Amino acid sequence: MKKANWLLLTLGIVLVSFGKVSAQLDTQHAVGGRFGSATGFSYRYTLAEDRAVQGIMSLQSNSKSRRFRLVGLYEFHKPLAENFSWFYGFGGSIGSFRYKDVERTWQNDAGQTVTERVNGKSELALSIDGIIGVEYAIPTTPLSVSLDVKPYFDFLQESTIKLIDPLGLTIRYKF
Question: Which residues pair with 39 in a beta bridge?
Answer without folding.
Answer: 59
